[in-house]
Amino acid sequence: MSTFTIFLALIVVVAFLLIVVIMVQNPKGGGLSSSFGGGGTQQLGGVKKTTDFLDKSTWTLATVMLALILLSNVAINKGGATTDSKALDPNATTTQPLPTIPTAPSAQPITNDAPEAESVPE
C-alpha cells in the first residue's frame, strides 16, 4: 500500500467526519427548529458547550483535511519522470513531422473551351 493511498483513505475519513459534524450543528439564526417551538428546549442540558465542541471540531477537521491534502501532493508517485514539461526544457527536441503540401495534379491552363452542345433539330 503506497503512502498516497493512505493519505487518500485518511482524506475520505476526515471528509466524512466533517460532513457529519456540520450536519449536526444548529444554524446560527435558529433555523426551522426554533420557529416550530424547539427553541426553548435547546437551552437545557448545556447546549452551549456542545455548540463550542462542534465549532472547534469543525475547524480542527477542516485544518486536518487541508494538511492531509497538501501532504498527499508530496506522496504522489511521479512515475520516475524527471522533466515536468518539454516546453520548459531548452534542450528538448520535437519529433513531429512537418506537414506536407499537396501538389497539383498537373499544371495545365484552364480554358473556356467547353464542347459545344449539339443542336437539336426542331
From TrEMBL:
Compositional bias annotation for Polar residues: 81-111
UniProt entry keywords in alphabetical sequence: Cell membrane, Membrane, Protein transport, Translocation, Transmembrane, Transmembrane helix, Transport
Transmembrane region(s): 6-24, 58-76
Pfam families, per the entry: SecG
Presence of keyword Glycosyltransferase: no
Function: Involved in protein export. Participates in an early event of protein translocation.
Stated name of the protein: Protein-export membrane protein SecG
Organism per entry: Mariniflexile ostreae
